[in-house]
Amino acid sequence: MLRLNVFIRVAAENRAAALQAAKELVAASLSDKGCIAYDVFESATRPDVLMICETWADEASLDAHQKSAHFTTLVPRIESLGEMKLEKFEF
Fold first, then answer.
1. Quick one: pLDDT at residue 39?
2. 3-state secondary structure at position 58
């Protein structure tokens, strides 16, 4: 299995739009084949930080997800609103 933690740092004026796009990404991604979990979290201590946490069955599932229409549309939108940092783990 694969776990991705995607940290998104956003300015106050972009936070609502970034959170909305992240929620759309979560909703669409939950039905992707091989998706075990996909959620967005808001930091309780830093209002400028959001985190998307993803769990995938395998690399093939993640690859297919990254080619999906919702990923290729929504991730660039999120990137335009804030700075993203990815951490990837296999377990």
1. 98
2. coil
CATH (domain of 36): 3.30.70.100
CA-based nearest residue to 83, from 24, 13, 8, 31:
8
Q: How far, CA to CA in Å, does 39 sit from each of 13, 67, 71?
A: 22, 19, 14
Domain range for 65 is 2-90
Cα–Cα distance for residue pair 32/13, rounded to 1 Å: 31
Helix (H, G, I), strand (E, B) or coil at 30: coil
Q: Mind listing the pLDDT tens digit for each residue in 39-91?
A: 999 999 999 999 999 999 999 999 999 999 999 999 999 999 999 999 999 99
- Strands 2-10 and 35-42, sheet pairing: unpaired
**Side chain identity, residue 68:** S
